[in-house]
Amino acid sequence: MSTVDEVAPDVFRVAGTAVNAVILRDGAALTLIDGGYPRDVDTIERAVRSLGRRPEDIEAMLLTHAHIDHMGALAAFHDRCGIPVYTDPTEVAHARRDYLEQATATDFIPMLHRPGVLPWLLRIARAGATRKVSLGGARPFQTSGARPFRTGGPLDLPGAPVPVATHGHTSGHTAFHLPQHRVVITGDALVTAHPLSTAVGPQLLPPVFDHGGPDTLAALDHLAALDADVILPGHGPALSLPIADAVAEVRERERR
Ligand SMILES: [Zn+2]
What we know:
Layout: E1 4-8, E2 11-15, E3 20-26, E4 29-33, H1 41-50, E5 58-62, H2 68-81, E6 85-87, H3 92-95, H4 117-126, E7 146-148, E8 162-165, E9 174-178, E10 183-187, H5 214-224, E11 230-233, E12 239-240, H6 243-255
């Protein structure tokens, strides 16, 4: 399977290690949304080059939330090329690692007997899951770290993504809406598959990954209100389904 799929005109899903990144193309310029694990950087660079562009052509990078499986190439390209990274004002401190809202290895010990858990842990460890990555001033060559984007309306970036606050999975989690394509990039607020889940279709991540509890469910209301029928999640394949229907499926699943 190709690692790059065009899910809508100039909207590309890039498959990393059981996690997705998204490239928005606008002429010569790109926006990169999320960046896989640290060792997914080569996969994402290949995807950029397969579009006839270089990492330096990325005008800006957006982070749905500061989990290690979404930050890899962002930190690498930020350090290497000085490309700015923007995230929700609430998520900036998380990206800078002033605090951490992320499952650690010990959280998975009670799950090790379940099929697929150990192979997945080994796979993500190879992808750099245990590395310490931050988008902050920790390293002297870092230019600025993550910065807050302006909220309320489309961002002045290639693809004109509209941030949708979906705080819950992390305190400052954000989805991005592309109204012109009826696409919603849901990050981890709503996914379509995960190696630790046997469910198929729209779903929340297993609770071990969530930090917001009730907020994670409340965030779904903000997704359901969007005019979108292509779902591009942080984990799992893209899905052609009205987002309101996908949210209804998730709520039904959570009630069981
Ligand atoms: Zn996450």
